[in-house]
Design brief:
The chain is 71% helix and 2% strand. It contains 14 helices and 2 strands, in the order H-H-H-H-E-E-H-H-H-H-H-H-H-H-H-H.
């Protein structure tokens, strides 16, 4: 019978110096300590990763006098006699009020309107860019990956290698050419909308990686399913839409989520390519607020929480599909 690594370690000890009871105790301690140490390591990693979010959330709820307090305290819950008292906590929504900028409006459904530019201008722009780019990336990567997975043609391997090479090119290196292209298009085309140009840039940047991921999912789907559908009168496009795409839905959903998050968090291209501030996204809104108010740190923290919240909600709602797609990709790939 093959011995485990724990048993082999114990057998290396001098049998005359260690009693069987001690050996059994050592084995038990190793089996009990290993999961505890693993859980402790994972807990430390989670605390390190969540600390910036937690500290930013607490900062956004502090009143201005607590933000400027020296020496600073993590929680504003102290009093002259105690370092922490739950009843003495001094939290405030003043930072969020500066971001929302609520204005009374009797004609509104709720009796007020939100006039803050982060809500009225920057967040709707980012929502449009992220949604349109994620949908376009999913559709085009699915069609391109299907062709590369199912058909053999001259130059196919070179094309795949070229796509893989493009996936490693930073967007920053192409900004000058894209900036010139945007200026020329603005001059030549009447009614030119820069927002759609930004969406096309995002789709082009996300496509190389997305094509490779979706192709890996399509490669695992048996061709016999499509051949049976074609015998029943289904076209190649119909086979893609009704047979292959549902089976590769976890991979397509993961690509949608990754593209959505990447576009939502992108700043530099949106800042440099858009000629008007009214067309820029939420990341520029946070940057603009930093330039306007360097001392209102609670309002700045509130803006950061508001910008990150939609992405967190989207990821939490789709996490099961995302993790399942990653697991299936690892097993099938």
């Amino acid at each position: 019978m093959k011995k485990t690594s724990d048993e082999q370690l114990v057998l290396q000890l001098d049998p005359n110096a260690v009693s069987p009871k001690t050996k059994a105790r050592l084995l038990y301690m190793r089996k009990v300590a290993r999961p505890w140490l693993l859980n402790l390591a994972l807990l430390i990693v989670c605390v390190v990763m969540l600390y910036p979010i937690i500290s930013t959330t607490i900062l956004s709820l502090k009143p201005p006098e607590e933000v400027r307090r020296k020496p600073p305290v993590f929680l504003p819950c102290d009093n002259p006699t105690q370092s922490f008292a739950l009843g003495a906590c001094r939290f405030s929504l003043e930072g969020y009020a500066r971001i929302f900028l609520l204005r009374p409006d009797p004609a509104s459904m709720f009796g007020f309107v939100v006039t803050g530019r982060l809500f009225s201008q920057y967040l709707p722009n980012t929502l449009f860019y992220a949604t349109a780019a994620a949908i376009g990336t999913t559709l085009f990567s699915g069609m391109a990956a299907y062709v590369l997975s199912r058909y053999r043609f001259r130059g196919r391997q070179f094309f795949l290698v070229g796509i893989l090479a493009l996936a490693g090119v930073p967007l920053l290196t192409m900004l000058l050419a894209l900036y010139q292209m945007n200026i020329n298009l603005r001059r030549l085309l009447p009614g030119y909308d820069e927002r759609w140009f930004m969406v096309i840039v995002y789709i082009g940047f996300e496509l190389p990686f997305a094509i490779w991921v979706v192709k890996g999912f399509f490669d695992t789907i048996p061709r016999e399913l499509e051949e049976a559908a074609k015998i029943d009168g289904c076209t190649p496009l119909g086979a893609l839409l009704w047979i292959v795409a549902p089976l590769a839905a976890p991979g397509l959903a993961s690509i949608f989520l990754l593209a959505y998050v990447n576009v939502w968090n992108e700043f530099i291209a949106n800042y440099l390519l858009m000629s008007k501030a009214t067309l820029r996204g939420a990341m520029y809104g946070v940057y603009d607020y930093i330039a306007q108010s360097l001392t209102s740190y609670n309002a700045l923290a509130a803006a950061c929480i508001i910008v990150m919240l939609p992405v967190i909600v989207v990821f939490l709602l789709t996490r099961n599909v995302f993790f399942r797609s990653m697991l299936e990709g690892a097993l099938k790939g």
